[in-house]
Each structure stands twice: as structure tokens, then as C-alpha cells.
Amino acid sequence: MNDVNASFANQVASYVADGEWKALRDQVGHFIADPQPNTLARIFTAIPRTVKSAGKAEFITLDGPTHTETAPLPLVVKDWPLVRLVRVWVLTRVPALEQPSYLSLIERLFSYGDVEELAALYAALPIYHYPAAWQLRCMEGIRSNMAPVRQAIIVNNHYPSQFLDEGAWNQLVLKAFFTDEDIPNIIGLKRRNNLRLAQALVDYAYELHAAKRNINPMLWILAAPYLDDRAHQLMVQILQEDMALLTHKAIVYAFRQSNFGPAADFITRNSELTDLLDTAGTPWDDWLDQTN
Amino acid sequence: MCNYNERDRASMGQRVALELDLVKGLRFFDPHIHMVSRTTDDYQAMADAGVIAVIEPAFWVGQPRTGIDTFRDYYSSLIGWERFRASQFGIKHFCTIGLNSREANNEALAEQVMELLPFFIYKEGVVGVGEIGFDDQTAAEEKYYRLQLELAKEAGLPVQVHTPHRDKTKGTSRSMDIALEHGLDPGMVIIDHNTEETVKEVLDRGFWAAFTIYPFTKMGNERMVELVRQYGPERIMVNSAADWGISDPLAVPKTAALMVKSGIPKETIEQVCYQNALAAFSQSGQLDEALLDEKTSIDQGKKFAGNSILRGGQQPRRDTDSIIIS
Q1: CB A49 to CB B285 under 8 A?
Q2: Band of residue B291 on the pLDDT scale cut at 50, 70, 90
Q3: Could you tell me which chain B residue has the CA closest to the CA of A45?
Q4: Are A233 and A202 in contact (CB under 8 A)?
Q5: Which InterPro entries does the UniProt record give (chain A) (predicted)?
Q6: Which of A70, A122, A244, B183 could join A152 via S-S bond, C-beta 3.0 to 4.6 A?
Q7: A115 CB near a chain B CB, below 8 Å?
């Protein structure tokens, strides 16, 4: 085990009682020596029983991206229950068998998973071997109606932005708006932004506006690089109708970022709006600096 | 499972107005309810009435399943979607997993189900093997009842035993005989759907006695009040077994309200409508008082909104008195 993986193991171990950690390592060791699907299923399912110290109320955040040995992408551990952290560690220890065996070993866990097991399995997408083979599984998880499961993929997960094609990525973002997820914590939001997504978001904004429902201000930040007359009209109308400060700030920011002439003109004509350009405290505060 | 018969209102006894204010502040645990058959309105009403936890036993779905995949998907739904659905209303959802007695009679399929069960009974929040036992009291039912008792013993899990509608008294005695024969501690076995005819033997032999308050076909709650008066609260628990039949998901709080009205002491009501179920099923190691006290996080972590039920921790309510839907 190299230093990187040792450090992830150490981080996990620091939350688990010594005896329980040793017992778990022994079980995992036996599994690595003879990787049988039933053994893995038993270890994985039984974690809340074997790791009693995995208190249900405790939520764990590890600083920065967590790199593990041989994993294609880092993990972002944010507000995870300890059982999830321990389960994901177990998954990092599954040896890179031949692709079909490896896939069926992990897929079997998905087909019998409870809510929290599924959340761990999807949170672990960045660390599975044969990363390109998990695209359909990832797309399936985004369709989940169980919020903790869906969130384990959509938010703070490096896998989707690296491996989903444009159509699937756009579904992820649309679903995230639809289910009111923590949009700024979708990794790759800026890098994967695209015209088709922006158009779909503006359509969605029209739909919400017609239904007199709230529109998440982050929608305008994503629409900004692709503003056109249709988007602009609705945004001007919302500036007049909607009194929410964050909505005004988002629209003005989008106008300022846009190359669409009428949007820039609108700000020039309404110079008082420039006061709203301060991004401090907004969800898009670090948007310009984002590279991932 | 009901047989619907038109009944003369007059034959249904005195009507008592629904006054759930009588049980305001009490917490309820319904240890037998089939939520997959119930709507979100039921979840809302249960939460409002003080139900904070439920156990959903695996049973049949109103018609026989024809393949193993539908069993697997059903078990998965008990530990997946249904668990999540309950959490949106602040209700803790546990389940028991087993092969029900009716479908034990399809032996070819039952064999496959038996192979499936070990993948589910060790899951988090699975608090027992159930509901298992007798329906027609056939040889096949007996075979799979015995096999599942062994499974429960090996896993250290309580057993939730369904007792038959027909030939009930004998079927109940036989269920207990067999459990003892397999070396189960009666304190780990919950005998369900008791009546005045079965309760004495169940309690005398040291088993837990559960009563199902279910209109027309099982116990009525006036009878339940009398039973608690007669036997006291020890090892007795009340459930609704509400399902896809004409049943009542508020059976536990309503029975508690009737007990209050009937002068049953509050401690007794708490025991039979909350504490005893907790004590019996906490023997699984999957459930304890602290877990029930912990507020189900209707929070950022489980927020579910937009097209759905919760938004930012608030449970939006349908206005049932308005024709406007917005």
C-alpha cells in the first residue's frame, strides 16, 4: 500500500474503534486473498453491525479532495455518515480483477442495496476500476427518486463531469435544478456548461415562470454565456416582477458576463444595476475562478 | 386482508368522534403496517397523529407473485424507496423480511426465495424475520416456517409470526409449538393477530402478543381496550396491519385515544402503543430508543423537492378542502 492509500485508510481508521478496524481489515484481507462475491456482499452489508462505532448521527467531512491508490479520480468527502466512509474504503480495496468479474462483483452490490448502501456505492464511482464502464450505472443513479442516493452522484462527485456525455450531463444538471440540489457543489458545472443545456434551462425557467414558481438564481449563471433574445426577454421581465435580491444579482451578473448586445445595453441604460454586481456571499462568488 | 361486506351502521356499535387531541404529545410505534400500499396522505396523517416509527413486514401483494425477481424488487423496495418515503414525513421505517405463508405454497418459487433471504435479513434496519407462519396450515407452509425459524435463530433476529384467519386457535398453538421445538426463545417471537381466544396461551407461554386493529375482519379497538384492562400491558402490543384492504393506518393512535377515553393509565397506553414494540424488536440490534429519538433528518441531506414532497425541510400540505391545486 502506498502513502496515498495509507493516508485514506488512516483517515477512515481514525473514526473507528481499534478493535473494530482490525477486525474489518482482517475480513477485507481474507476477501482480497479470495475475492468471492458473497464475501464482499457480507462485509459490505454488515458494516453497521461490525463497525458499531459507526454512529449514525455522525457526519464526516475530510479536507480537500481525497486521493486513493489506483483510483482514477479523487473523492470529495463532505457530510458523509461514517458507514458510508467505511463502505467506500472497503470498495477501494476490491482488487482489479478482469473487467467482467470486477463489474459483476460491484454490480451485485447495487442490485441488493438499501438506501445508504446505494449512496455509498454511487459516492464511490470515482474510485472504481474500469471507470468508463460505469457510465450507464451513473445515469441510472441520477434517475433515482431517493434523494440521498441521487445526491451522492450529483453533488461533490468527480465522476459525472469526467465520464458522462453531453446528453447525460445535461440531464444531471436539469435533474439537479428540478430536485433543488445544491447546484454550486456540482463538480464540473462550469467546464461542462453548454449551449443545449443553457437552452433547456431557459425553457425550464419559462415553465417555472408560467407556474409562478421560484427560479433558482444559479440557472441564470449557467445561461449567461448563451443568452439570446428569448432568454433576455424573460430575464428583463423577472427583474421587474421578482423582488428577490439574489435573483436580481444573478440576472445582472449574467447580463454582464454575456456577449449578447441587448444584455450589455440593458446594464448601460440602467446604471443603478451595477451596484448589484458584487458577488460576495452569492453562490457564484468563485465562478470566474473555477476550472474544474 | 379484508372481506368487504356491506354492514348496517347500527351493527357497528356506537360511533365515537375522532379526537386525536386526547393523545397529543404521545409517541406511537406501529410495528406492523404495509406502507407500500398507502399514500402520502396516510404518512402525513400518521405523522400528525404522533406515529414516529413503523415496521413493515414483508407479505404477499394481494395476488401471488410468479417469479423471483418480483420478490427481490419487493424486498429492495422495503429497504429502499419505502424507507426514504417514510423519512420525508419524519417517520422511521424498519422492516421484517421473510417468505409469507400463502406464497410458501408455491414450492418451486419458495426454494428460490429461501436462497434470496440471506441477502436481505442482515441489512441495516431489518429488525426481524417476518411475517411468516401459517395460512392454510399446509405441509409446505410448515416446511418454510421451520426453515425461516432456523434462519432467524442463526441471525439472532426476532420473528414476527402471522397467525391464520381460519382455525386460528389451533394454528396459533401450533406456531408456538414449532418455534419452541426449534429452540427459539419465546421472548424473541412476536405472535401477531391475536384475539380473545389466543391471548392467554400466548402470554402464558412467554411470547409477545400483538393485536391488529383492523375493521371487519380482525380486532376492533373497543375489544382491545377490554383486553388491556384484563391482561395489563406486559408483552402486549397494538398494530394496524394497514395494507391494500379496507384498513386504518391510524389504528394505533385511535386505539390510544379510546384507551384515554376509557380511563386506561397513560403508562399502560405508552407500553402497548410504543414501548413494547420497541423492546421486542430492539433485540435485533437494529433499533433502539436513541435512534427513535433522533429526529429523522428532514434536512439538506434528505431534501427532496421540486416535483415532490418536501422543500427545504418543510412538508407542503395538500389543501384537501380546496378545489385549487397549485
Answers
A1: yes
A2: confident
A3: B123
A4: no
A5: EboA_dom
A6: A122
A7: yes
- Quick check: B122 and A46 CB within 8 A? yes
CB pairs under 8 A between A and B: 70
Report yes or no on B318 lying in a domain: no
For B32, the domain range is 23-295
Of A46, A115, A177, the CB nearest to B83: A115
* C-alpha dist (Å) from residue A83 to A35, A59, A80, A275, B72: 22, 10, 8, 47, 24
Residue A175 placed within a domain: no
User: What is the pLDDT, as a whole number, of residue B123?
Assistant: 95
Residue A102's domain comprises 3-165
* A135-177 per-position pLDDT tens digit: 999 999 999 999 999 999 999 999 999 999 999 999 999 999 9
Look at residue B306 and tell me if it is in a domain. Answer: no
Provide the domain count of chain A.
2
Task: Collect the ranges in chain A with pLDDT lower than 50.
Answer: 1-2
pTM: 0.90
CATH number at residue B123: 3.20.20.140
pLDDT of B304 strictly over 90: no
**Domain end call among A145, A165, A185:** A165
Query: Residue A179 falls within a domain, yes or no?
Result: no
Q: What is the pLDDT of residues B96-113, one digit of tens each?
A: 999 999 999 999 999 999
This complex has an ipTM of 0.85
